[in-house]
Amino acid sequence: MTATERERYSRQILFPAVGAKGQERIGQAAVCIVGCGALGSFQAEALARAGIGRLRLIDRDYVDYTNLQRQWLYDESDAQTESPKAIAAARRLQQVNSHVQIEALVKDMTPSNAEELATNFDIILDGTDNFETRYLINDLSVKSKMPWVYGAAVGSYGVVMPIVPEKGPCLACVYPEPPGGAQPTCDVDGVLSSVTASVAALQVAMALRLIVGWGDFAAFIHTMDVWEGTAKRVAAGPRDADCRVCGAREFQYLDGRKRTPVSLCGRNAVQLHENARPLDLQVLAAHLRPLGTVRVNEFALRLSVPKYDVTFFPDGRAIVKGTTDVGVARSVYARLVGG
Ligand SMILES: [Zn+2]
User: Fold this and answer.
1) What is the distance of C-alpha 329 from the center of its chain?
2) 39: CA distance to ligand 1 center in Å?
3) Are 73 and 47 contacting, i.e. CB atoms less than 8 angstroms apart?
4) What is the pLDDT of residue 338?
């Protein structure tokens, strides 16, 4: 470490659990952030300020005005020009700390590219908004023995869980299957920037603790409600010996077997052949009405919003009109009913 670095990071070095040795490790560490929305953009800025060695940012999305309420790195000019989030984030991060090596990838993480995009990192941070990608990250983490920190937020509620393969339970030990039916999402149910910032800040603290060395690691689940001002921490318990991921080492998400099949349908539409996610169309209609025009009968629900027309069926299947991009269709679906 140079004298300049020692000065720049002095307040962090003074924190006994980090110290000069910990700061050296932080400076040599590589972190992969999957998703650069509210969680990922905060994580990236906090890690850049902390002097992380290398950051990889993966996000396929573009900045829009609805992001600015909670996505720290972006400003009005990014929304005006619809900059890719990964690129806009990297640009800002270089101003924050020009010594950090930043790799911005405008990509969707999928089973076919996950290993190529996110292997050989010290830690993966969850900045995603859907369970399909989280289980994919979990598969990758267990397979390559790479820790990751799960984080999620909606409304005023948030949850964080650090996952260290072989030292504690994986995501599938605790939640064997993703939640079924329509789940609350930020696009439908709203979210406060104070909860996304709190979740991301805790994820970053866990990442730094893992980087500097966390000898007596014991997994836990931390939940919080920033509106109520409450927080709770429960032990995540031991690994489940019968876990399909860390027990049987079956990587169904990484193998692509759990991925909802899609097909192009019509000239400008994508069909998601989800059939294991029964949806109550009347309940969903009440949720989606604030977003656009909703028409519903017992067979289908149709939502019209400015860019897309989405038709949902009771078995969970959906047709997204207005795009031929499979990634966009998946993302629209995940934002409306959870992913
Ligand atoms: Zn497991």
Assistant:
1) 17
2) 24
3) no
4) 82
Distance from residue 172's CA to the centre of ligand 1 (Å): 5
Say how many Å lie between the CA of residue 112 and the centre of ligand 1. Answer: 22
**CA 171 centroid distance within chain:** 14
Q: Which residue from 92, 276, 83 is spatially nearest to 178, judged by alpha carbons?
A: 276
319 φ, ψ (degrees, to nearest 5): -120, 125
Is-contact 260 272, C-beta < 8 A? yes
Q: What is the mean pLDDT of the chain?
A: 94
What are the CA-CA distances from residue 186 to residues 102, 239, 291, 298 (Å)? 28, 31, 12, 26
Q: What is the pTM of this model?
A: 0.89
Polymer length of the chain? 339
State the pLDDT at residue 265. 81
Assess whether pLDDT exceeds 90 at residue 267.
no
- Measured distance CA(244)–CA(76) in Å, rounded: 45
- The model's confidence at residue 235, banded by pLDDT at 50, 70 and 90, is very high
Torsion (CA) 326, 328, 333, 336 in degrees, nearest 10: 180
